[in-house]
């Protein structure tokens, strides 16, 4: 008999618990679908009886045009410089001295330049024009001559 009472009490407790849980679910569902009231319509504002006069309209100004650039001055080409006259032919070592003097006059070590230039002139029978560069005008002999340190010999 005690077991029947205990069984009855347990069944009642189970039924009560299920009703409570189902009520909570219904409340959640009901709260989920609550209607939101619509906002009130705005009250129209009355316009003033007489409109204010509009400001005077100015005629549109012409569109901005940037100033036209000044024409570029005509490019001038440098005056034509004719090639230097060919050097006199070198026949002897004595012919090399004035040519090498002209070639080495601006060198920082004039005597060293003169000695190398006279040697190159005597072997290749040519001295390039000007004080620097133009070595290719005397050909492979002048450009390919090297010192013991494998540096170009001829100035």
TrEMBL record:
Residues 1-22 form the signal peptide. Residues 22-35 have a biased composition (Basic and acidic residues). Residues 19-89 are annotated as: Disordered. It comes from the Eukaryota. Residues 39-89 have a biased composition (Pro residues). It holds the Pfam family GASA. InterPro entries: GASA. The keyword Signal applies. Keywords: Gibberellin signaling pathway, Signal. One of its GO terms (biological process) is gibberellic acid mediated signaling pathway. PANTHER family: EXTENSIN, PROLINE-RICH PROTEIN, GIBBERELLIN-REGULATED PROTEIN 14. Belongs to the GASA family. This is Gibberellin-regulated protein 9. It comes from Hibiscus syriacus (Rose of Sharon).
